[in-house]
Structure to design on (159 residues):
């Protein structure tokens, strides 16, 4: 497996990953906004992919935060998906570790919005447990996802 910054040619791979999870996140593949988000993140060096010889195993869109004069930056994991064939193999961890190493300098906070505890995808996707194993802690509730399901903020402090 190779983890690397995404390239414009990776858009079809991002769309294939999105197609696997639209039942949890709502429509993405046909949404121009999602295409723009992938292209923008790729152009700014804030999209990361994991691949093997069969294609993309996972993708991540990151948002670099800006620090204020008296506050550390707050970064965002905007989107992280691992292909069904690769879930549970460390791909997600590698993607997150890579983006943290390349883009985050402490002190800082990294936030991600994931499924709320009552969302059907919370257990099926393993997302909440995944983030907790990486050191993220549950925080406040977030607004509902595009499909109407509950969401929750998770935070990681980086010193």
């Amino acid at each position: 497996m190779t983890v690397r910054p995404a390239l414009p040619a990776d858009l079809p791979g991002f769309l294939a990953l999105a197609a696997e999870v639209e039942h949890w996140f709502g429509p993405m593949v046909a949404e121009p906004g999602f295409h723009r988000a992938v292209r923008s993140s790729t152009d700014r060096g804030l999209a990361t992919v994991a691949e093997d010889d069969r294609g993309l195993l996972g993708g991540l869109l990151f948002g670099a935060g800006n620090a204020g004069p008296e506050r550390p930056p707050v970064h965002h994991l905007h989107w992280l998906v691992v292909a069904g064939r690769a879930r549970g193999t460390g791909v997600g961890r590698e993607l997150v570790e890579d983006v943290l190493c390349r883009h985050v300098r402490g002190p800082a906070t990294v936030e991600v919005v994931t499924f709320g505890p009552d969302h059907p995808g919370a257990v099926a996707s393993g997302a909440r447990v995944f983030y907790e194993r990486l050191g993220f802690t549950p925080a406040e509730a977030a607004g509902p996802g595009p499909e109407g399901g509950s969401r929750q903020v998770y935070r990681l402090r980086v010193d």
In short: The first strand starts at residue 2 and ends at 5. The longest helix spans residues 11-25. Strands lie at 2-5, 47-52, 55-63, 74-82, 108-115, 137-142, 151-158.
